[in-house]
Design goal:
The complex is a heterodimer of chains A (172) and B (507). Chain A has 172 residues and is mainly alpha-helical. In chain A, 74% of the residues lie in helices and 0% in strands. In chain A, α1 (11-33) runs antiparallel to α2 (43-65), α4 packs antiparallel against α5 (102-118) and α5 crosses α6 (122-143). Chain A is flat, with a radius of gyration of 25 Å. Chain B contains 23 helices and 2 strands. The longest helix of chain B is centred in the N-terminal third of the chain and has 34 residues, at 104-137. The chains are: A mainly alpha (172), B mainly alpha (507). Chain B: The chain crosses the membrane at residues 12-33, 39-66, 108-133, 167-186, 198-215, 256-276, 321-340, 352-375, 387-405, 411-441, 462-484. Chain B: Residues 18-436 form the DUF112 domain. Chain B: Keywords: Membrane, Transmembrane, Transmembrane helix.
Chain lengths: 172, 507
C-alpha cells in the first residue's frame, strides 16, 4: 500500500509526531542518570532515544521533500470508519470485560462486529457468534485453562455443577 | 549419547506432547495458509495461552506452529498468489502459474515433500552444529554479544523494509520499550513516570500481540469485501519420479536455507529468495521457463525456507539471538518459561536442546502428513469469510493479552501498540525490528555495560579491544558495512562497478 516515492495523507503529521516522541524520550532518558558515566543506567536508553531522534528527523526531512501526493484521503483510505469503529469496539470490550464478564462481553462484541461487517441479518450473526464463542470457550477456557473474568455469569458454579453431574454419575 | 536420545524421544513417547506437536503443526499450517494471517500472528496469539503451562508442552506447541506456519504460507502463494508468510514470496513466482494451469494439486504435493526434505536437513545441521557453535560462543566477549545483537536488528531492519532509516527507528524504539521499568543492575527507575505498574516493564506479550495480531487484523479490514477464491484441487501426493528428479537441487537449496537461517537477522524469507535465484542460475534448461510455472522455482524456495527453521534455531539456542520476528517471539516465550537461551543453555540444560530437536523432527513429520491430507477441510477454512475471521482474531488477541498476567492494563497496552503498529505499517515502517529490539534490549544493555566497565569506562580502550580481536572486528565491520551500503556513496560505487563489469563482459 505504501509507495516511498509518494506522500500518503497524514504521513508528514505522523513523522512530526515520531520526532516529538523521540525528543521527549531522549529528554526522559537524560533525566535517568544524566551524563555521569558510560555505564550508567541511563546510557543505553539515551543511545537508543538518540538513534530514534536522528532517524526520525531524517525521515521527516525526506517526507517533506516528497512532492508527489497519493490520491488518497485520510479518513477514507488510511483510517476509514470501519477501522475506527472496530478499534472503538475493542476499547469498549476492554472496558466491559471486568464488570460484565468474558462470556456476555465476547458474545456482544462478536455479534455486533460480525453483523456490522457482514450485514447478513442479526440472527445469523448471533448464531455464528454463539458457535464461535462456544469453540473458543472449549479450546481456551477448558483445554488451555485460561482464566477470564466471569462477571455476571456464575461460570464457576455452572462448571462445578456440570462436573458434579458427571462425577456423580460415576460414583453412584 | 543415550541420554541425548532419551531426551530427543520425550515428545515422541508421551501421548500428550505428541498430540500438542500435532495440534501446533496443524494450527500453524492452517493459520499460515489463510491469506493475511501470518505465522508471526499465529505464534504471537497462540503462545500467549501457553504461559501457565509447563515448559515441555509449551515448547511442543510453539515448535509445531513455527514449522507448520512456515510451510502453510506456501499454500496461498500457490493457490491465490498471496504469500501467507514472507518466506513464501518466492514460492508464488512459479507456484501460482502452476495453479493457473490447473496443476495446483501437483504443486502443493511437491512443495510439501520438498519442505519436508528441507526441514530435515535444517534440523540435522542444527543437531550437529549447535553444540560446536555454543562452545565457540563461550569465547565471546560482552562486546561481541552487543555487536552481534545490533547486527541482527540492523539486518532485519535493512532487509525487510523499504528503508534502513525506518528500520533503525523501529529497532531503536523496540530497544527503548525493552528498557522500560527498573534497571536490572541498579534498580533505578527508567521511563516509569512515577507509576509502580511500570516497574516491571511493558508486557512483551502486549507489545507482540498488538504489533502482530491487532495491527494485521486492522489492515485486513481494508479487504473485507474481497470474496474468497474457490479452488478445485486434484491429486496432491507427488510421484516418486518427480521427487527423485528434484532431489539434487533440493539438497543444494537446503544448504543455502540453513546457512542464511543461521545468520542472526536473516530468516526464511531471504533464504527462499536466494535459493530461487540459485535455482535459476543452475538450471540450464528448465522444462518450463522460470516465472511461468517451473517446478525448480517451486522446489528451491520451499526447501530453503523450511531448512532455515533448523538454521534459525542455531543462533537462537546457542547465542540467545533471534533470526527474525518469529524466533524473537519464541525467545521471549522461553524467557517467560524460565529458560535462558544462550551458550549456557547447552551446558546447563542439554536436555532442553535435544528435546527441542526431537519435537522439530516430529513437527516435520506431521507437516508431511497434514500437508498431503485434508485438502477438503483446507479449502473450507480458506474460504471462511473475513467478516467472521477478523472479529475472532481480535477477540483472541484481547483474551491472549489478558490471560498472561490477568491484567486489563496489558489489554490497553496491546490496543495502543495495535493502533501504533497499524500506523507504522501504513506509512512503510517495519514492525519486525521493534519486537527484535524489545527482546534484545536487555542483552545489549547488559553487555554494553559489562564491556565498558571492564575497559574502565574508556571508549578508546573498547575500540582497541575491538580492533585487536578478529571476531569483534568482523562483527564491527559488518555493522559499519550495513550503514555504508545504504549511503549514496555505495550506490554510486556499485553502479560504476556494475557498468565497468558489463562493459568487460561485452568485450
Amino acid at each position: 500500500m505504501h509507495d516511498p516515492s509518494k506522500k500518503m495523507p497524514g504521513e508528514t503529521a505522523f513523522a512530526v509526531v515520531l520526532v516529538g516522541l523521540s525528543g521527549f524520550l531522549l529528554w526522559q532518558a537524560i533525566l535517568i542518570s544524566g551524563f555521569e558515566a558510560l555505564s550508567s543506567p541511563g546510557a543505553f536508553p539515551m543511545a537508543a532515544a538518540f538513534a530514534m531522534l536522528v532517524t526520525s528527523v531524517a525521515i521527516l526531512i525526506k517526507t517533506l521533500r516528497l512532492r508527489e501526493r497519493m490520491a488518497l484521503r485520510f479518513f477514507t483510505d488510511v483510517a476509514p470508519p470501519v477501522i475506527l469503529a472496530m478499534f472503538a469496539m475493542m476499547l469498549g470490550y476492554a472496558l466491559l470485560l471486568k464488570p460484565l464478564g468474558f462470556l456476555p462481553t465476547s458474545l456482544l462484541f462478536l455479534t455486533v462486529s460480525i453483523f456490522a461487517l457482514r450485514r447478513r441479518g442479526l440472527l445469523w450473526s448471533f448464531g455464528v457468534s454463539l458457535a464461535s464463542l462456544a469453540l473458543v470457550y472449549v479450546i481456551f477456557r477448558l483445554v488451555f485453562t485460561v482464566l477470564m473474568p466471569s462477571g455476571v455469569v456464575p461460570e464457576g458454579e455452572i462448571l462445578a455443577w456440570l462436573g458434579n453431574l458427571f462425577s456423580g454419575g460415576d460414583t453412584q | 549419547m543415550t541420554e541425548a536420545l532419551q531426551f530427543f524421544l520425550i515428545s515422541w513417547l508421551d501421548l500428550k506432547l505428541l498430540g500438542l506437536v500435532a495440534l501446533g503443526t496443524f494450527a500453524g499450517i492452517y493459520v499460515g495458509a489463510i491469506p493475511g494471517l501470518s505465522v508471526t500472528m499465529a505464534v504471537s496469539i497462540l503462545i500467549s495461552f501457553t504461559f501457565a503451562w509447563d515448559v515441555y508442552p509449551a515448547l511442543c506447541l510453539m515448535v509445531g506452529i513455527y514449522m507448520g506456519g512456515v510451510y502453510g504460507g506456501s499454500r496461498t502463494a500457490i493457490l491465490l498468489n498471496i504469500p501467507g508468510a514472507p518466506s513464501a514470496i518466492a514460492t508464488a513466482l512459479d507456484g501460482y502459474p502452476l495453479a493457473q494451469k490447473g496443476q495446483a494439486g501437483e504443486a502443493i504435493g511437491l512443495s510439501t515433500v520438498m519442505s519436508f526434505v528441507g526441514g530435515f536437513i535444517g534440523i540435522g545441521v542444527l543437531a550437529v552444529a549447535a553444540p560446536f557453535v555454543s562452545e565457540f560462543a563461550l569465547t565471546f566477549q560482552p562486546r561481541d554479544y552487543m555487536l552481534l545483537a545490533i547486527l541482527g536488528i540492523l539486518l532485519v531492519g535493512s532487509l525487510s523494509g523499504e528503508s534502513l532509516l525506518k528500520g533503525v527507528f523501529a529497532g531503536a524504539l523496540g530497544l527503548l520499550i525493552g528498557a522500560v521499568g527498573l534497571d536490572p543492575l541498579t534498580a533505578e527507575e527508567r521511563f516509569t513516570f512515577g507509576m509502580v505498574e511500570l516497574w516491571g516493564g511493558i508486557s512483551f506479550i502486549a507489545v507482540m500481540i498488538g504489533l502482530f495480531g491487532v495491527s494485521e487484523a486492522l489492515t485486513q479490514l481494508h479487504h473485507i469485501d474481497k470474496a474468497a477464491v474457490k479452488q478445485t484441487i486434484g491429486r496432491i501426493v507427488p510421484s516418486w519420479r518427480a521427487v527423485g528428479k528434484y532431489l539434487p537441487l533440493s539438497l543444494q537449496t537446503s544448504s543455502i536455507g540453513v546457512i542464511i537461517g543461521a545468520l542472526p537477522g536473516t530468516g526464511g524469507d531471504i533464504a527462499a529468495l536466494m535459493a530461487y535465484d540459485h535455482a535459476k542460475r543452475v538450471t540450464k534448461k528448465p522444462e518450463v521457463p522460470f516465472g511461468e510455472g517451473a517446478a525448480e522455482g517451486l522446489v528451491a524456495p520451499e526447501t530453503a525456507n523450511n531448512a532455515a527453521v533448523g538454521g534459525a534455531f542455531i543462533p537462537m539456542l546457542t547465542l540467545g539471538i533471534p533470526g527474525d520476528a518469529v524466533t524473537a517471539i519464541i525467545i521471549g516465550a522461553m524467557f517467560i518459561h524460565g529458560l535462558n537461551p544462550g551458550p549456557m543453555l547447552m551446558i546447563e540444560q542439554p536436555q532442553m536442546f535435544w528435546f527441542i530437536t526431537g519435537a522439530l523432527v516430529l513437527a516435520n513429520i506431521f507437516m508431511l502428513i497434514f500437508g498431503l491430507t485434508g485438502i477438503r477441510l483446507f479449502t473450507k477454512i480458506v474460504e471462511m469469510p473475513r467478516a467472521v475471521l477478523i472479529p475472532l482474531i481480535l477477540l483472541l488477541s484481547i483474551v491472549g493479552a489478558y490471560a498472561v498476567n490477568n491484567s486489563i492494563t496489558d489489554v490497553y497496552w496491546m490496543l495502543l501498540f495495535g493502533a501504533f503498529g497499524y500506523l507504522l505499517k501504513t506509512y512503510g515502517y517495519q514492525v519486525g525490528p521493534v519486537i527484535l529490539g524489545v527482546i534484545l534490549s536487555r542483552l545489549i544493555d547488559e553487555n554494553w555495560r559489562r564491556a565498558i566497565i571492564s575497559e574502565q569506562e574508556d571508549l578508546g580502550r573498547l575500540f582497541m579491544g575491538i580492533f585487536t580481536s578478529p571476531l569483534s572486528l568482523v562483527l564491527f565491520g559488518a555493522v559499519v558495512f550495513i550503514f555504508i551500503s545504504q549511503t549514496p556513496l555505495w550506490t554510486g560505487l556499485r553502479a560504476r562497478f556494475g557498468t565497468a563489469r558489463a562493459r568487460g563482459d561485452g568485450v
